[in-house]
Amino acid sequence: MTRLELVFLGTGGGRFATLTQTRRTGGIRIISDSLHMHLDPGPGALIYSLNMKLNPQKLKAVLMSHCHPDHCNDAEILVEAMTHGMTSRRGILAAPRSVLFGNEVCGPVISKYHQQTPEKIIETRPGVTFTVDDIKILATEAQHSDPDTVGYRLETRDVGAIGYSSDTEYFEGVGKSYKGVRLLLLCVMRPSGEPWKGHMTTEDAVKIVEEAGPEMVVATHFGMKMIFRGSAREAKIIEEKTGVPTLAASDGMRISMGAKIQVERAKRKQRGLGEFAESL
Question: N or C: which end of the chain has fewer CB within 10 A?
Answer without folding.
Answer: N
